[in-house]
Specification:
Blueprint: H1 2-28, H2 33-46, H3 48-60, E1 66-70, H4 78-85, E2 91-98, E3 105-113, H5 116-124, E4 127-130, E5 133-139, H6 153-156, E6 157-161, H7 169-176, E7 182-189, E8 196-204, H8 207-215, E9 220-221, E10 224-225, E11 227-230, H9 231-235
Antiparallel strand pairs: 1-3, 1-5, 2-3, 4-5, 6-8, 6-11, 7-8, 9-10
Helix pairs in contact: 2-3
């Protein structure tokens, strides 16, 4: 009889526990993520057992253990990448990403640690010199929206131009390291030939260090005077845009009164009284006045009287010279 009572009591207790869990779930379900995070963080700080359970669940999720590494050299392999990050803890998986078509490195990779604490340790020192280039890591779930895309990045990232082909990324970092701590930087190399393209980029951790590098009067590296400026100013050069032909409206060139355009009727076009000296037959009067000019968009010029010129006759009745037209050009008569 007593065993039966005990079983009934246990069953009732289990039913009560199930009903309590369901009730709690129904209460927690409508809550926002920020409210749940705040609630669990307070419970975890009060009860160590809850804190341990939260850590265990978080550590089993790769989102807290997987790192995205960018800025890798073209010749960096997966083995080299893992060797650089192994100092922080045991690596579960690590690989450089290669282009499927060309088989060449795409300049980035991923490292997944076995324990969450190892990933946090690596994030404490995100910049690492690998194969002569400064690589940077952040949580893979953040992608490119990590620490390097902070609002002040435009004031910390510098463009370095005019580099000698012999300057390596390591030399570049050593040279600019005198102004402050560098977060990221490298010489730009050609993907196919792996040769320097004559420029590079350096990102400082502080705006002050970037300003020092720009204001430094001695900008000579490997015997060459180099260009140092903010990367955004180099990227934002003005580009000349072509206006589409459809948007161009043809406009007629204005002409002075007295010179009508060919193929168009200009009944109001009246000669403005321009005068040109040329051999002509004698006029009855010594001078003539131009007719009054009609109102026009251009101010009319004052009239100039023509001087009377006596025409010399050749004994045979042929003009001594070819008649000259306007501005000294001869008339041509069609055959």
């Amino acid at each position: 009889m007593e065993d039966l009572k005990k079983r009934k009591m246990e069953e009732m207790g289990n039913n009560d526990q199930l009903s309590t869990q369901e009730e709690l779930r129904s209460l927690l379900d409508p809550l926002a993520k920020s409210q749940l995070v705040d609630l669990l963080s307070r419970l975890g700080s009060q009860y160590p057992s809850i804190a341990e359970e939260i850590k265990s669940i978080a550590s089993s999720d790769p989102v807290h253990r997987k790192l995205f590494v960018r800025g890798l050299a073209w010749n960096t392999t997966s083995e080299t990448l893992c060797a650089a990050f192994r100092m922080h803890g045991e690596i579960e998986e690590g690989a450089v990403i290669y282009d499927k078509a060309t088989g060449k490195s795409r300049g980035y990779g991923f490292v997944t640690y076995k324990h969450m604490e190892s990933a946090h340790s690596a994030l404490g020192a995100p910049s690492k010199l690998i194969d002569g280039r400064m690589a940077v890591c952040n949580l893979a779930c953040e992608g490119l929206t990590g620490a390097s895309t902070t609002p002040d990045l435009a004031q910390r990232k510098l463009y370095i131009g005019g580099l000698s082909p012999d300057v390596t990324s390591e030399m570049l970092l050593n040279y600019f390291g005198r102004h402050g701590e560098i977060e990221e930087g490298s010489v730009a190399y050609d993907k196919d030939t792996n040769e320097s393209r004559g420029f590079g980029f350096v990102t400082y951790k502080t705006i002050e260090a970037a300003k020092k590098a720009i204001d430094d009067p001695q900008k000579i590296l490997w015997g060459r005077t180099i260009i140092v400026k903010l990367a955004d100013t180099h990227k934002g050069k003005p580009v000349q845009t072509q206006v589409p032909a459809a948007a161009v409206v043809p406009l007629a060139m204005p002409m002075a009164p007295g010179y009508p355009q060919l193929g168009k009727a200009h009944p109001s076009a009246t000669p403005a009284g321009y005068a040109y000296t040329q051999p002509v037959a004698p006029y009855q009067a010594s001078s003539y006045s131009s007719p009054a000019a009609a109102p026009a968009p251009y101010p009319s010029q004052s009239t100039i009287p023509y001087a009377s010129i006596a025409a010399k006759k050749d004994p045979q009745g042929i003009p001594p010279t070819t008649p000259m037209g306007m501005s000294g050009y001869p008339y041509y008569i069609g055959k």
